[in-house]
Amino acid sequence: MNNYSVKTALVTGANSGLGFEAAAQLAEAGWGKVILACRSEDKAEAARARLIERTGKDPFSGLAVDTAEVASAKAACDRLRERSERIDFLLLNAGASGKDRQYNSDGVEITYASTLIGHHVLTMGALEGGLLSAKARIVIAGSEGARGNMPGMPIHDIKEIATDGFSGDLVAAIEALCRLEVPSQAKFNNMQEYVTAKLLVAWWAAALARRLPAGMTANAVSPGAALATSFGRDANAMMRLIMMPIMKLLGPLMGMAGSIENAARRYLEAADFADDQTGHFYATAHRKKLVGPMGIQTWPAYFTDAPSQEAGFAAIAKLTGVGFPEEVSRATTA
Questions:
Q1: What's the pLDDT band for 243 if we cut at 50, 70, 90?
Q2: Residue ranges of domains in the chain
Q3: pLDDT of 116-134, one tens digit each?
Q4: 248-263 burial, b for 16+ CB within 10 Å, e for fewer?
Q5: Which of 85, 109, 258, 303 is most exposed by smallest CB count within 10 Å?
Q6: Which pTM does this prediction carry?
Q7: Does the domain spanning 4-320 belong to CATH 3.40.50.300?
Q8: Residue 221, H or E segment
Q9: What span, in angstroms and rounded, lies between the C-alpha atoms of 107 and 92?
């Protein structure tokens, strides 16, 4: 049995939605330290006060980080090193989207930036700085929508984009996608960018897992469809005005929507994965459901395509200017 009282978790996006719920459940499960990584110190402190009120416990500390920005993620790693933090569970939950085009300071569209850019930099910095324990579990939030079978949320065909506009170069195609520089993005569809970003999340986690020291794991985990989150505020009109009201009414009866408590519980389940449970995308096992028992996703086949996974990781490394630390290898065990 795990002795959670001596373990440390870090949760990005911990001031609202799934991040807040996951932080609460970690405290309730007895985790010794829960770092609330939020966009500002004020947001982290406000979340801490609400979490103490809910749980009656205070293992919480704050960390300011904007996961859309490289510099902010690097500064957060510096603060963690100064505090001599040692993280056992790194939950990369934060993300944002907008109805209109928005970019980070490096020209990456905000959906891709907040989902991948800062999380990549934070993870690489934690590895380089020795901030992760030998048995650290890294979980990044995926989405059921990455399977490409949700109405109004089509995924970009990245291989087709690479073939048509980049001489088959997947890395260049992904970089362009993240900057909204391909023809299929001429009419901005934030839900399309959201699910495509979540596909890249699955690829990134798989490629990272191959690089990690033995004993650490990295997985993408979909929390399932939990409508009591901030997701709906950024949805397009059809999703917000038609699909979501229907889902709230009928979703729980059809296995298409669940509670935020159950959604966050998936993250905590992944915190206890065995050493060999790594490099996968976990989502609802039933292809036609959005909630229920989790399973490794092998459909569509693009989830398990190793060249695409490597291209996704390489593209994010190029967009951030941060690669995998050379001094960290799978032979490392301390």
A1: low
A2: 4-320
A3: 999 999 999 999 999 999 9
A4: eeebeeebbbbebeeb
A5: 85
A6: 0.91
A7: no
A8: strand 217-221
A9: 22
